[in-house]
Amino acid sequence: MKTKTGIGFGFFIGVFCLLSFFPQLPLAIGLKVGDTAPDFSLKSTSGKLVGLKDYKNVQGYIVVFTCNTCPYAQAYEQRIIDLHNKMSPMGWPVVAIMPNDPSVQPGDGFDRMTERAKERNYSFEYLLDEGQKVFPTYGAARTPQVFLLDKDRKVRYIGAIDDNADDESLITRRYVEEAITAIENGTEPDPNLTKAVGCMIKVKK
Fold first, then answer.
1. If both were cysteines, with which of 43, 105, 124, 197 could 94 make a disulfide (CB 3.0 to 4.6 Å apart)?
2. Does domain 9-200 sit in CATH 3.40.30.10?
3. Bridge partners of residue 158, in order along the sequence
4. Are 161 and 194 in contact (CB under 8 A)?
């Protein structure tokens, strides 16, 4: 998307993310492709505690670290909704986790998360990483960022949802969908690691 001055949408959201760069956590080592992801039990906007163990008869999990306030997360919001609606019936539900510290980013507080989920009619669980214990163990650094797990919680893909954060009409690679297709065909995702484009996760100094 271009403005009248010819400056792209990516420029503005890049500036936003740069201005909100601090405070943040240095990139954690976290999980690698092939590792087994730990489970968790987090408060959901649906009003219950949710962990991966609560999903039955699934083929895997699309764990997405995302939030309310990051412009990149906002740009991807409908894509995340669509991804869940398409893949959940196939056994691949989205599990969305909000990793920011609400005291640093008040727009990402649990009440605001609940409002957002209701307004946008989320059909997936939207979880608060209270105490910020989960995202460092996974190694998430940005919103949005995907960790695609198979049914045994083995990490099969890490990174971006697709190859164009700025303009959905210009997408040429839908990485998460392609990875799921590869797994279901008994092959390895290629690529299995891409760069997540988004805002850095916010923590207290």
1. 124
2. yes
3. 147, 193
4. no
